[in-house]
Amino acid sequence: IKPMSPLGPVYDLWYKAVVEMENRILRQLGFTLYWMPDSHPHKFILYFLRFVLQENECEKTKEELSQRAWNYCNDSCRLDVCLRYESENIACAA
Asked: Model's pTM, two decimal places?
């Protein structure tokens, strides 16, 4: 049996059918399916931190705050928070 070409029309039909069936099964099992956003809060977090932090603050304080905010953004991607709220809002909350 020869493998199917991923560029062919038959592969495309099978791929769409499998994804649709997988979505149906997940919905039946109680999962809520959301559309994934194109932007992530990590994109905005450093801009917000530069705006909030003053130049005369200690470097260690800046690093600790930046790391903690980055960790909150990482945690938001593991939950459905990143699907329910805009990326800018999550970055502000972090």
From this structure: 0.52
